[in-house]
Structure formats: C-alpha cells, structure tokens
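Many introductory courses stop at the sequence. We go one step further.
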Amino acid sequence: MLVLPAVLLALLTWQVVTHGPLLRLDARVSGALVHPGGRFSEILSGLGNVQVAVPVLLFAIGYVLWRGHDAGTERWWLPPLAAAVLMALVPAIVVPLKDWTARPATPVMPPAVGYFPSGHTATAAVAYGSATLLLLPWLDSEATRRRLVACCTALVLGVSYGLVRHGYHWPLDVVASWCLSTVLLTTLSLVPGAGRSTRRSSSGIPRPHSDPGSPATSSDTETAAPARSRGSRTSRSSSSSSGSPWSS
C-alpha cells in the first residue's frame, strides 16, 4: 500500500505541472459536481479544518497514552508519537507541493493559485485515520472496530465531497491527498501497536509479551511451592500403602 499510492500521487502531480490531458477530465467532473453556496457541503468541508480534525487526534493520542501507560504495554508511547509526527508532516509536505504546482482555483472561487493537493482532505484523512489506527487495538468488540473504521471513512469521504461540491477544490486535488494520506497512514500502521490488536489479558487490557526465558515472579514461585509439597506428600503416602518391602 505504499508504492501504488505514491506512484499515483507522482502521476497526478506530473499532470498538474505539465497541464496534461487528465486536467480536462478533471474540469468536466468538477463542472458536473460543483454547486456553490450549499450549506450542507460547507459543513462537510469544514470537518477538514485543523481546528476540528486535529483535536480529535489529540484526544485519541491522550487516551492511548493513558491506557498504554496504565497497562504497562511495551513501548506504549511509540504509536502516539508516530501519529503526532505524521500529522506534523502533512503541512510540511502539502504546502511545498501547493507552491510548486501553483494550480489555479476552480471557476467559482476567486482567482488564486496553490490548490493542489487539498490540505483539508489530507488533514482530515491523516487526523481521523491516525486516531482510528491508535484506538483499534484497545477496542474489544469486532463490531465496534468496524463501526470506528466506517465512521472514519465516512468523515473523510464527507470532507472530500463537500470540498468538490462547494467548489473549493478540483476532484484531482482531493484524489492526490487521498494518495498522500494512504502513504502516511500505511507507514503508521507498520508501527508496533498501531492498528493491530495486541495480546490481551482476561480483563481485555493489552499486556506486553513476557520473555519465555525470564525468571519466575515471586507470585509464581509461591504458587508452585505448595503444589510441589502436595505432590511429595501424595507420593510418600502412595508408597507406604503399597506393601513394598522397603516400607518396613
């Protein structure tokens, strides 16, 4: 999931920079979808604002830090840190791309450049997607995990639709941000503890894997000692009652 979206992002960027034939198709699709002034599309596009999406990620980061530290999970700080770094990378990547491509706005927007790729789409996808990947390992129910993924997908698609419908962005601006976000989120999913279930105790709380060669804990020793003692008494009792000549 890293190579294909990266190649597609490079292809779309090349088309924008060279004013390739794909832009004509993009303009036709935009003309068919755009309807400026709609309140609903404006609300949807607003879900990609930094002030809306980033606090959701910060909440997920804080929750996972608390749960991981409380459960004593190994490297509990790594997935939240990786998510924060990826979120910081979004403007570091998107802004130079906007300046370099200098793509004009759609006809319904005031004359300006710097619309490729869509910053709102990338912000929404990385913020909501990272929050989802962080929370998935801490959810016990498969149905709950599916609902969380569906909610994240709906949010990103809603933002994307609102941006195109309102005329804030060309469709290819949004698709390019999908590709960029897929690369970033795939990278996050490779971090241990992000997006994958960890080993859980009977209470459903993730716990670190213990080293098979580690020494037994004091509770294990205390539990094993009475068991060995009972086994020794049982063995001696069986020996004395068997009529063996050595018992006399």
